[in-house]
Design brief:
The structure holds two protein chains of two kinds.
Chain A lengths: L12 E7 L2 E8 L7 H5 L7 H6 L6 H16 L5 H30 L2 H22 L8 E2 L2 E2 L7 H24 L2 H7 L7 H7 L4 H5 L6 H4 L20 H25 L15 E10 L2 E10 L4 E7 L1 H5 L3 H5 L4 H10 L4 H5 L1
Antiparallel strand pairs in A: 1-2, 3-4, 5-6, 6-7
Chain B lengths: L2 H26 L2 H15 L1 H38 L17 H10 L11 H20 L21 H9 L2 H11 L3 H32 L4 H7 L10 H14 L11 H4 L9 H25 L12 H22 L5 H29 L3
Helix pairs in contact in B: 1-2, 1-3, 3-12, 3-13, 4-12, 5-6, 5-7, 5-12, 7-8, 8-9, 8-10, 8-14, 10-12, 10-14, 12-13
Classes of the chains: A alpha+beta, B mainly alpha.
């Protein structure tokens, strides 16, 4: 299946050996979308890398530029103003909802529900519009800066965000009725693509697939960054380890994200939203870890005292998660491939880099 | 006057007109040649031959009606889908009639596209599959009457085709075979899996479908559509056989391969299923025929369960029939756009473990009603 196949959501190849309709072997192949971003970064100044980091993932670009800024701030030892942190958290959680909604749209289309696809894409617009008001663009935002964010929030941002959250929580109940109310959807999801807890941990799976396997591991809770410790939310985990658990984890995460956005925009203090960062990075290393919508994103930067980083290493959650494909796929039907791989929320941009 | 008498009269008039020529030729030409032309004239004017041509004319009329209905169905499908999903549907091409001309524009586009036959395809099967698919669907259509005087009939005295319902279901069920041929001959892994799935799917839905239909035959006591529909003059069979009607609708969705049961197409996992290798107007005809099958499905449900053309006499009979068929189609589309696709092993479970017992129960209900003498 692939590289040009409706299942793939990107550009990758899944070699499947089937016996009739049952899968006996599977092997994912990557590299069709390799752009050499890590190497490109070595020839850009620290500021110029922010839009490049945006291009890592088309589904949730903001988390990646945020992660890059976190990493470089760690390298330079900068203290970000508190207002900037709150703006960042609100924006990231909006991005998380938009990303999960895009996943849900693709997942619904994979399973054959056109209604789910259209409705989720329609509601994603709400958050895209908010992010557009915040940053000026709709897909690759280029919004965080080293030492803060690019702009202050626009007027009425708090009101619009609260409205969007209320709207979204109402719509999430509607999705529950649309998807979980459908017997066919449950038949396609329950007990499909089981990834055992130990196996998931050993394979290095992170993010919603790991939490759906019963491991309550969320970097926002377990290794808090930014202002997450001051916000009240829960890390979602489900014990069932099947496709339905992954679906449920993401749906509940969207509810939690709504809560976080509410708190973040209400608690937002007055003050500066950006400090000036030095041009040259010091000699040393910096590391950043965030909870991406797809898993744990990590960046490691080595500075050598020039305006350009010596090396930037990106850890992609999907690249690791997709290696668990074989363990999840073997024994199921060809039709389950779309449910299982769709449930992982593939984003090849960051996996191939 | 029924449709047969109308067609018979028309053909008869045409034959008399043309026979002037044959008899004139027979008069002026000498010997055997003249006798030959006179013979043609006599042959054409014989009762049996005119009847054959009259039946052909009836079928052509029904095919034309079907074509117009298919255009309507595609338009209705798009409009309904648009309303469900917060957009307008076709709008620009022919916007005074609600974008109805969009289908014709799409058809024109498909007509001018290149028709590609894959190099490794089995040519005969690849060409034959669309013919079987389209031909069998049109034949299934030809026996369904639209009104008490408006249907394909074989003579002036009969009403309807004897055994018409059986013929319709027999032709309706040929499609999976042509899908298998298309999938196999395209020589592509996706089409092959699609074709095989179609065959597997047929195993699961065909038997409950025919069992529910058998209950209708039992109540009406005939295979003839006209008699079945006349038996529903007072009460639609959908009311006593409500269970059967639901089972029939579910099986119908599997038969016409719409969304929860469109396994052979399965866009997400099999690219475009068994039609992957077809291009241009061949694909267009496949798509059109799938809508035609939806129309046949609606017409069958109307004729067997929803009382056919019976309704207040304010509206003509064929219009009543079409309104009901369209309503069934809209219900099917509604389910189609809101349900996910079922899995290939689950459809077998559904067919054999759920629908089949329900169909048997429905048959028992029908037998009880018949024994009690209510019908």
């Amino acid at each position: 299946m692939g590289p040009q196949h409706p299942m793939t959501h990107g550009l990758w190849n899944l070699r499947i050996k089937v016996d009739g309709e049952t899968i006996v072997d599977a092997e994912p192949e990557m590299g069709y979308l390799h752009r050499g971003i890590e190497k490109l970064c070595e020839n850009r100044t620290y500021t110029q890398i922010i839009p490049l980091a945006d291009r890592l993932c088309y589904g949730s670009s903001l988390t990646w530029s945020h992660l890059y800024c976190l990493t470089v701030e760690d390298l330079m030892g900068l203290e970000v103003p508190e207002r900037a942190e709150y703006i960042r958290v609100a924006a990231i959680e909006m991005q998380r909802i938009a990303s999960h909604l895009m996943w849900l749209a693709a997942y619904a289309a994979d399973l054959g529900t056109l209604a789910g696809f259209i409705y989720t894409m329609r509601d994603r617009e709400v958050f895209i519009d908010l992010l557009q008001a915040l940053s000026g663009s709709r897909l690759t935002y280029n919004f965080p800066r080293i030492g803060g964010v690019a702009h202050d929030v626009p007027p009425n941002f708090e009101r619009d965000s609260l409205r969007a959250c209320t709207y979204m929580e109402k719509k999430l109940d509607e999705y529950d009725q649309l998807f979980e109310g459908s017997k066919v959807f449950m038949m396609r999801n329950e007990g499909v693509g089981i990834l055992k807890k130990e196996l998931a941990m050993n394979l290095g799976v992170t993010g919603p697939p790991l939490r759906a396997s019963g491991v309550n591991y969320d970097l926002r809770k377990d290794q808090p960054y930014s202002v997450y410790p001051e916000l009240d939310f829960q890390a979602i985990s489900m014990p069932d380890a099947d496709c339905y658990a992954r679906y449920k984890v993401r749906m509940d995460e969207m509810r939690e994200s709504c809560k976080i956005i509410r708190q973040a925009v209400q608690k937002m203090p007055k003050g500066k939203w950006r400090i000036v960062a030095p041009r040259n990075g010091p000699v040393g290393t910096g590391i950043g870890r965030v909870e991406d919508p797809r898993g744990e994103g990590m960046m490691y930067v080595v500075g050598n005292g020039t305006p350009k980083p010596y090396r930037l290493k990106i850890r992609s959650p999907i690249f690791v998660t997709v290696s668990a494909a074989k363990q999840m796929l073997v024994g199921y039907k060809v039709a389950d491939v779309v449910a299982i791989m769709g449930g992982l929320d593939m984003c090849i941009g960051e996996a191939d880099r | 006057m029924n449709l047969f008498q109308f067609c018979y009269g028309l053909i008869h008039w045409l034959v008399i007109l043309v026979n002037h020529l044959w008899y004139w030729l027979g008069g002026v030409l000498p010997g055997a040649l003249g006798d030959f032309f006179t013979g043609i004239g006599d042959l054409a004017a014989s009762d049996g031959n005119i009847a054959v041509f009259a039946i052909l004319l009836e079928v052509i009329i029904f095919v034309i009606i079907a074509f117009i209905n298919v255009l309507n169905f595609i338009w209705l499908d798009r409009k309904f889908m648009g309303r469900m999903f917060d957009f307008y549907g076709p709008y620009y091409v022919g916007y005074r009639i609600g974008g109805w001309l969009q289908n014709i524009a799409d058809g024109m586009k498909l007509f001018v596209k290149e028709i590609i036959t894959p190099a490794k395809a089995d040519k005969a099967g690849f060409l034959l599959a669309p013919v079987i698919f389209i031909g069998s669907s049109f034949l299934a259509l030809s026996t369904i009457p639209l009104g008490s005087n408006f249907g394909v009939e074989t003579s002036a005295h009969d009403t309807g085709v004897p055994g018409g319902a059986l013929i319709a279901f027999a032709f309706f069920a040929i499609a999976p075979f042509s899908i298998l041929v298309a999938g196999w001959s395209s020589n592509n892994k996706y089409t092959l899996i699609g074709g095989m799935r179609s065959a597997a799917q047929m195993m699961s839905y065909e038997i409950p479908l025919l069992l529910t239909v058998a209950s209708v035959f039992l109540l009406a006591g005939s295979f003839n559509f006209n008699i079945i529909i006349d038996a529903q003059k007072d009460i639609w069979f959908a009311i006593p056989l409500f269970l059967g009607f639901i089972v029939f609708l579910v099986c119908l969705m599997a038969e016409v391969e719409v969304q929860p049961f469109d396994l052979p197409e399965a866009e997400a996992e099999l690219v475009e299923g068994w039609t992957t290798e077809y291009s241009g107007m061949r694909f267009g005809l496949f798509m059109m025929t799938s809508y035609l099958r939806a129309y046949i499905g609606g017409a069958l449900a109307t004729a067997l369960f929803l009382g056919g053309w019976h309704g207040p006499t304010l509206i003509p009979e064929p219009i009543w029939f079409l309104i009901k068929a369209y309503a069934v189609f809209v219900v099917i589309e509604w389910a189609r756009w809101s349900l996910p696709r079922i899995r290939v092993d689950q459809i077998l479970n559904l067919g054999w473990k759920r629908l089949m017992p329900l169909a048997v129960v429905n048959l028992l209900i029908a037998a009880t009603f018949k024994t009690l003498g209510w019908f």
